[in-house]
Amino acid sequence: MKVSYQWLDKYLPLEQNGIKPAELAEKLARTSVDINSVSSPSDGLKKIIVGYVEECVPHPDSDHMHVCQVKISDDETVQIVCGAPNVQAGKKVIVALHGARIADNVKIKRGKIRGEESDGMLCALQEIGFSEKIAPKDYEEGIWFLPDDAKIGDSVFPYLGMDDTIIDTDVTPNRGDMLSIYGNINDLSAIYDLPNNFVSHEVTENADDQASDMISAKVAEDELAPVYKLRVIKNVKIAESPLWLQIRLWNSGIRPINNVVDITNYILLKYGQPLHSFDYDKLPNHDILVRHAREGEKITTLDGNEQELKAQDIVVTADDRPMALAGTMGGEDSKVDDHTTTVVLESAIFNSVMVRKQARRLDLHSESSMRFERGINPETVETALNEAAYWLKELAGGEVAKGIVTGNDHDYPTHDIELSLNKINAVLGADIDMATVQNIFDRLAFQTAQQDDDKIVVTVPARRWDISLPADLYEEIARLYGYDNIPSTLPVMTRNLGGLTPRQKKLRASRHALEGMGLNQAISYSLTTVDRAKQFEIEATDVEPMKLDYPMSSDHVATRMNIVSGLLNDIAYNNARKVENVALYEQGRVFIPKGGERPEEQEHVAGAVTGSLVADSWNTKGQSVDFYQLKGIVERYLNNMAVAGKVEFVADQSRPEMHPGRTANILLDGQLIGFIGQVHPNTAKEYKIPETYVFELNLKELLAADTRDKHYEHISKYPEVTRDIALLVDDTVTNADILAIINRRGGAFLKDVHLFDVYAGSHLPKGKKSMAYTLTYQDDHGTLKEETVNQAFAKVEKHLTDELGAEIR
Known about the structure:
By secondary structure, this protein is α+β, with helices and mostly antiparallel strands. The protein folds into six domains: 2-40 and 165-192, Phenylalanyl-tRNA Synthetase, Chain B, domain 1, CATH 3.30.56; 46-160, CATH 2.40.50.140; 206-408, Phenylalanyl-tRNA Synthetase, Chain B, domain 3; 415-483, Phenylalanyl-tRNA Synthetase, Chain B, domain 1, CATH 3.30.56; 502-704, 2-Layer Sandwich (BirA Bifunctional Protein, domain 2); 721-808, 2-Layer Sandwich (Alpha-Beta Plaits), CATH 3.30.70.
């Protein structure tokens, strides 16, 4: 909320006590709410004064400009060329003199405009720093006219409220009471122990008119609007608000509209109580009902947009037609305009949860909905309504009908909380006496009753709905006593050695392993579309992903069931920016619905690579990644994770988003733990990416799997012996089949098996292929003998021939 220092000073003697805006903001930040900024609207501006247009004639060489003679002091008149359509003689205006600084640090210089001398500039509000959102619409395309009593030559800042200081507070959800001047005054009065001079105005009613004869109100369900009250004001004259009221609004970031709307916004800022005004004569009838909307029911809101409603929304109706979205925005059909003569004022407390949901779903967040969401002070609902009626009488000439029409009302009683002085000091770690505690609650205007030397009962007023427990009162005592006054002590606790758990160590090692192989970590959204959430599943399921009731966008509506789709989005992002070589991995959770109330969360790790892992250099040409390169990364990763079981890669064609001839399931001891392969060209086209290879592993299963013991092995000092073997085998025989036999039958001294050649084609029988291997033998404790190697090699040849029908070439 943008809080005006001058408005606060009207009710608290801040300046009188030497409390400057910066100090005030610092105190608020340390005691109540966060502060975004402290600034003055005049910051960075200079040499901007009040001028008087004595003469205004058309520019001789322009069809829209005027040459003005502007008096800037009792004895000086300057000529200024102005292009504003509303410039005219006899008006006091904003003048930026030669050398002035206006908005965006623009410097004004003396010069000629189409041949005519111009010694300055006549300014619109936007040109001296006012936002387009708050500058009054009547002056959108023209300059601003100052009041007739403005003194020529004076700075314009005091006349426009620009000499004020604005403290922009960041109010947390629990301190909704601070979204008003009333709440800020109460808090600052307690913080500084200053007299609270807040003033409310009592309304004078017209005894000839009874409001209950003119309108009725009803709330269909108690929970929709625990409090709902109306007043009727007749013979209202719509006009521009006085300047003091406009200043209050635009310094708070609200655009002035007309006196009726401005008064409701003024009351909203002053009390934190949103009000809504209906044009009495535009209502189809005068029986007001607050009810749930009907599914599909429609209303055109004040912003001109037609809204389709849902059954959980709240509407204010007349003749069963929606006139307003309760607590969110009024309707176009009943809005106050220049022809309005009778106004119905609404003051209420609407269900905060329902208001929040409808405002978020319809993207209609407003100053009113923000306050309804955080809570309304029940003590000032009627006070705010009465003061708004008072100002409508004072500023719009209205006649206030007698009585308040009540659709619903509830008592919001105060509640008592018992505190122990010993407990207070134990919790805060301080030594506060009972007199100090009593003084703090007196400053807060909380009634107290001391039971004995240790016990005190505190009565919490309804305006502080954030306080319900003793702990809340401990916080009030601490912040007003001063956090700096509480002694700093180390907590008493047992000493435990820090460190990571075994699981945390494995997760960190997992990331380090992939980074060591050249992959960069990516962090993707856990939310995606429904279709992409169902792609790239390790185990195929027919279930729908968990969907959000209120997604932030159409691209983030469901929880992910895989990580690969997020990595493909990252590759598309990089590729669109001409980054061709991308190697990414991500480690995180996926959410698999298993029929319970909540989905099962599984830790997964996935990778995606496109382009080349090694860039071109002067002596090496980059090579595009392929299936086997990525398979090597996965194998090395599983080896680094010390997985003890048998790992197999089995060809798979079941995933429609993966290439059917270049995809394999990854099995650990026969159990599916992941997949690897190329993204199907059609899927790659959908994601707008080039040829890409991916893998995804269920890290939860890997962490639970048995691991190898890690121990140091000496490098043998004895020589290796190698033997080459070439085999003619059937096309259906795989490398894995051959390796399994060689490793099983190769003997104790077999150290390594390397496939160095594969051939199929001419000079070989149909349905056959040739595969050649190098077998390496080594004894760690002595030199191998020729006959020992020959015996082991012969045994391998025999079993390959017997079990696979291989022909030794």
